């Protein structure tokens, strides 16, 4: 499919996760178009890392945690079984391993790491001049102006399904012709339930996303609608549209992945059955569509699609995200870091579902951002502070 003379080289960050493993599927399907040269993971499943390294013939294998000797032994075992005993990639272990993979000079760095820990790899990929296929929305949101200042026009290609959709819809007109962006939301597993019914929902219920199989953090964020709050800020940063011209529309079937309304009243939507394969493939192959990347809509079967307004009372997370997005500075980083702490606490049984966003709101309310230009150090300091403040509130409840 590629018009490039040779396959694009890819660094795959978060290779063992939901985004990462689906990216491997795309690469497996299109070896003529994509060549994975580096993979990075947290290190929770070294066996999978070893299997991916051998299958993809990666030159660099990076993990945040784990023993290098164990990973080397596993890679050796898999390589021997695969009839390639001489395969010996460079292995990097440690907290900056993903950053090293990000700066390897690949044509495309797909950042599929979860959480704001993805910030340094995002910055490294941009500094290295790679195209950044961005699933890790947190790094853009917390880094905000720092990430934007580093990125050349078109260097960041969104992989988040809504933003991939908007990027495609925006091809229909110029920036000054856009009236508003419409970010669609599934509404999560608790759509339609009033706030008083949400206090005691369980982690298992929160993880039952209606349409997508994703990692724990984003799935929980879909249930609280924090994901949609993050996505509104993400859209604002990616497309330079003011927050007040970005609306959220609940669309339970998630067949429309987002829309752009133009000044003449025309709305362009991007549709497809809910699947991340298409946005991931488009992120790797941008601006070219990858043949047969994902499922297609069957227009011969009767079906209907629904749309509803967002219930801001049951789900105050989007309104809060608009506030932090408009305050800028370290406020989005504080919102995200406090949320990451609260999601863990919810899954550990230390926090009720509705207290996730209530606690995030308290932490945001207590935050005092420093004046002046935002720096990475300020972001990291604010995140530390937010995590600590969230833990104090959790301990005091
Ligand atoms: N899944 C989806 O459909 C979508 C995801 N996204 C976004 O994509 C990102 C990834 O989500 P998802 O794939 O669901 O998450 P997962 O939890 O499934 O995967 C996260 C991946 O990141 C790796 N990782 C964690 N910490 C580090 C680290 N320090 N260095 C390197 N790798 C690390 C994990 O490895 P390990 O398991 O070893 O820790 C794992 O491979 C998130 O930002 C999410 O919001 C956006 C749209 C859709
Ligand atoms: C697939 C994807 O991009 C996720 O961010 C997804 O959008 C989650 O859906 P909701 O947050 O709308 O439930
Ligand atoms: Mn999304």
Automatic annotation (TrEMBL):
Record keyword Transmembrane helix present: no
Top-rank taxon: Bacteria
Keyword terms of this UniProt record: Isomerase, Isoprene biosynthesis, Magnesium, Manganese, Metal-binding, NADP, Oxidoreductase
Residues annotated for 1-deoxy-D-xylulose 5-phosphate binding in this entry: 137, 161-162, 186, 209, 222, 227-228, 231
Domain 1-deoxy-D-xylulose 5-phosphate reductoisomerase N-terminal per the UniProt entry, residue ranges: 10-144
Signal peptide stretch: none
Reactions this protein catalyses: 2-C-methyl-D-erythritol 4-phosphate + NADP(+) = 1-deoxy-D-xylulose 5-phosphate + NADPH + H(+)
Entry keyword Kinase: no
Pathway(s) served: Isoprenoid biosynthesis; isopentenyl diphosphate biosynthesis via DXP pathway; isopentenyl diphosphate from 1-deoxy-D-xylulose 5-phosphate: step 1/6
GO MF entry, a single one: isomerase activity
Gene Ontology terms: biological process: isopentenyl diphosphate biosynthetic process, methylerythritol 4-phosphate pathway involved in terpenoid biosynthetic process
Required cofactor(s): Mg(2+); Mn(2+)
Binding positions for NADPH per the UniProt entry: 16-19, 42, 136, 138, 215
Domain DXP reductoisomerase C-terminal: 272-387
Ranges for domain 1-deoxy-D-xylulose 5-phosphate reductoisomerase C-terminal: 156-239
Residues noted as binding Mn(2+) in the record, renumbered to the chain: 160, 162, 231
EC number: 1.1.1.267
NCBIfam families found in the cross-reference section: Dxr (TIGR00243)
Function: Catalyzes the NADPH-dependent rearrangement and reduction of 1-deoxy-D-xylulose-5-phosphate (DXP) to 2-C-methyl-D-erythritol 4-phosphate (MEP).
UniProt record similarity statement: Belongs to the DXR family.
Listed name of the protein: 1-deoxy-D-xylulose 5-phosphate reductoisomerase
């Amino acid at each position: 499919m590629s018009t490039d003379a040779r396959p694009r080289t890819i660094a795959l960050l978060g290779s063992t996760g939901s985004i990462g493993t689906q990216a491997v599927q795309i690469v497996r399907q299109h070896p003529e178009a994509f060549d994975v040269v580096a993979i990075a993971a947290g290190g929770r499943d070294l066996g999978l890392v070893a299997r991916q390294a051998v299958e993809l013939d990666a030159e660099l294998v990076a993990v945040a945690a784990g023993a290098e000797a164990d990973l080397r032994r596993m890679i050796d075992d898999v390589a021997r079984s695969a009839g390639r005993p001489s395969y010996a990639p460079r292995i990097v272990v440690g907290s900056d391993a993903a950053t090293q993979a990000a700066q390897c000079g690949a044509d495309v760095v797909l950042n599929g790491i979860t959480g704001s820990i993805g910030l340094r790899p995002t910055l490294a990929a941009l500094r290295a001049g790679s195209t950044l296929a961005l699933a890790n929305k947190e790094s853009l949101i917390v880094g905000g102006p720092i990430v934007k200042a580093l990125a050349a026009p078109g260097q960041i290609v969104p992989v988040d399904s809504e933003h991939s959709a908007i990027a495609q819809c925006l091809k229909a007109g110029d920036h000054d012709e856009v009236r508003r962006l419409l970010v669609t939301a599934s509404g999560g597993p608790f759509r339609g339930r009033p706030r008083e019914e949400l206090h005691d929902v369980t982690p298992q219920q929160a993880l039952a996303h209606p349409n997508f199989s994703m990692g724990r953090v984003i799935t929980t964020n879909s249930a609280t609608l924090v994901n949609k709050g993050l996505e509104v800020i993400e859209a604002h940063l990616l497309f330079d549209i003011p927050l007040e011209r970005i609306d959220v529309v609940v669309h339970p079937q998630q067949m429309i992945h987002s829309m752009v309304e133009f000044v003449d009243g025309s709305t362009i939507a991007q549709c497809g059955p809910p699947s991340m394969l298409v946005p991931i493939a488009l992120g790797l192959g941008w601006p070219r569509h990858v043949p047969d990347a994902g499922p297609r809509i069957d227009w011969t079967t009767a079906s209907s699609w629904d749309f509803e307004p967002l219930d801001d009372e049951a789900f105050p997370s989007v309104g809060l995200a608009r506030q932090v997005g408009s305050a800028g500075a370290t406020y989005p980083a504080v919102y995200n870091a406090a949320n990451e702490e609260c999601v863990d606490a919810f899954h550990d049984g230390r926090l009720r579902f509705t207290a996730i966003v209530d606690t995030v709101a308290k932490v945001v309310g207590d935050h005092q951002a420093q004046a002046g230009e935002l720096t990475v150090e300020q972001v990291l300091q604010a995140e530390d502070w937010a995590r600590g403040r969230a833990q104090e509130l959790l301990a005091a409840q």
